[in-house]
Design a protein that fits this description.
By secondary structure, this protein is an alpha/beta fold. It has helices spanning 7-21, 41-48, 65-75, 95-102, 126-138, 140-143, 158-161, 174-181, 206-223, 225-245; strands at 2-3, 30-34, 54-58, 80-83, 109-113, 120-121, 154-157, 187-191, 193-194. The protein has a single domain (2-245), classed as Spore Coat Polysaccharide Biosynthesis Protein SpsA, Chain A, CATH 3.90.550.10. It is globular and about 55 Å long.
Length: 258
């Protein structure tokens, strides 16, 4: 679980995880990969560690959600790996359903899906829905008919994770990176209700949208070179448009040539 300034959410989330998983037949450990928060994350984790198996890893280097997830996957001791956000958007009560789906024959990657039948989002406006639809459409040649390939709530086996010969994520969509680089074929989706974060601010902004387009560009180049001929010009056109949005007045005040 990657975190940065998520102490108020962790206070609520960790007891829910413990309530969901304690007493089950499988053992578990929660890893918190923290990007050097200056809130009370260490104190919250220390308090909960007396009631559940939870381990805090303070990361060095650049603050980066995807790199934090990859470090957590490598540090995890188990053979079944699950990733979720710490902002209470992903319901921990659905963790057993993801693990059950992963144990079915042929499954190598399971998504807690907002958009499969039975899944939904909470109080999304039209602009956010349109953003999500376009982003999903742009990666369709990479992921086939997966309804929610950009989800941050997913499970996979260690052997699947270790199939990746190169992991080079840009931005937040580490699940998409793993689907492509680990060559996942048996992708299952479990419906969830996606909740808006309870405390703190969303990290989605124009910079992250640009990073997503750059991430897609790299994935098409490396994983679907045939589609790259079509998709890369589209992606770069969109990147140029985002650049213009981030430069208000730049063209308006530029003297005309000639």
């Amino acid at each position: 679980m990657p975190t940065y300034q998520e102490a108020p959410n962790l206070r609520l989330l960790l007891p829910r995880i413990a309530s969901t998983l304690t007493g089950g037949t499988a053992t578990y450990e929660v890893l918190i990969l923290d990007d050097r928060s200056d809130d009370q994350t260490p104190e919250v984790v220390a308090a909960e560690s007396t009631r559940m198996p939870v381990r805090l890893i303070i990361r060095e280097g650049p603050r980066d959600l995807s790199l934090a997830v990859l470090e957590g996957l490598r540090q995890a001791r188990g053979q079944t790996l699950l990733v979720m956000d710490a902002d209470l958007s992903h319901p921990p009560e659905r963790i057993p359903d993801l693990l059950t789906a992963l144990n079915r024959p042929g499954a190598d990657f399971v998504i807690g899906s907002r958009f499969t039948s039975g899944g939904r989002t909470e109080d999304w406006g039209g602009h956010r829905r349109l953003n999500s639809y376009v982003a999903t459409l742009l990666c369709r040649p990479l992921t086939g008919q997966v309804r929610d390939p950009m989800a941050g709530f997913f499970a996979l086996r260690r052997e699947t994770f270790e199939r990746a010969n190169k992991l080079a994520p840009i931005g937040y969509k580490i699940g998409l990176e793993l689907i492509c680089r680990c060559r996942c074929q048996g992708i299952a989706e479990v419906p969830i209700v996606f909740h808006n974060r309870v405390h703190g601010q969303s990290k989605l902004n124009l910079d992250q949208q640009s990073r997503y387009l750059l991430h897609l560009d790299r994935l098409y180049r490396d994983c679907r070179p045939g589609w790259a001929i079509i998709m890369r010009p589209i992606l770069w056109s969109m990147l140029a448009s985002l650049w213009l949005v981030r430069q208000p007045g730049r063209l308006r005040h530029h003297p005309a040539a000639g």
